[in-house]
Input
Amino acid sequence: MTPSKTKKETKPEWRHFNFVTNGPVDDYLYSMLPKRDEVLAEMEAYAGLHKVPIVGPAVARVLQQLALMTGARTVFELGSAIGYSTIWWAQAVGEKGRVIYTDGDSRNAERARGYFERAGVSDRITIHTGDALEFLSEQKQQFDIIFNDVDKEDYPRVLRLVSPRLRKGGLFITDNVLWSGRVAERSPREAATKAILEFNRLLYGSADFYTTILPIRDGLAVALKR
Ligand SMILES: C[S@@+](CC[C@H](N)C(=O)[O-])C[C@H]1O[C@@H](n2cnc3c(N)ncnc32)[C@H](O)[C@@H]1O
Output
């Protein structure tokens, strides 16, 4: 086994998506992050061990910063898994804020519920188990932030649902939009890559949004609703 291989294997799953800033720069960025509290640290360890694809602390910090910068009080999250990103949102929206957790897997939701209680944020979070897109389509209110982290094939469909349910000045944020660099392939064949390419094209072309992609970890699209 080569030394570099040994080093890679000690990284948790969610860090394997770093392809823009890999190696020493990536290690440096992660070394700068403040220590997480006990519950978040435990979730990161669990996600690493069980290959749960969480955003990880570098991206989670951006999410929380964006919520704090915009004074967000309501967040709708599509694809929450064990609730790691949900907790970062819940901390940002404050005691009077509201975060909607959605996941199709009820075992994820049960695990998330336990973490929310231990993190002291369960009263700010509504847990919804089932199809996130369907639940979003039923929403009558407009949110401050909509965060998209579901199956990638569904990204174009998510985009079609978002605009009427996001307030003007609100943020539509989407993870994995660089898809480990596969968006730059000459002739992509994978369905997920094609869907992300279509999504990025539609998002940048939309008159409803002002969009940039932050090349952090696996690429984070931040779109401001005009
Ligand atoms: C990448 S993980 C979410 C990670 C989470 N945002 C975090 O960073 O902590 C994606 C999750 O979305 C869920 N999912 C995918 N498609 C979905 C859908 N259409 N409706 C609800 N959940 C979905 C999967 O079960 C999976 O747990």
Remarks:
- The domain at 3-225 is CATH 3.40.50.150 (Rossmann fold).
- Residues 53-55, 79-81, 84-85, 102-105, 108, 131-133, 149-151, 154 surround S-adenosylmethionine (CB under 6 Å).
- The first strand starts at residue 74 and ends at 78.
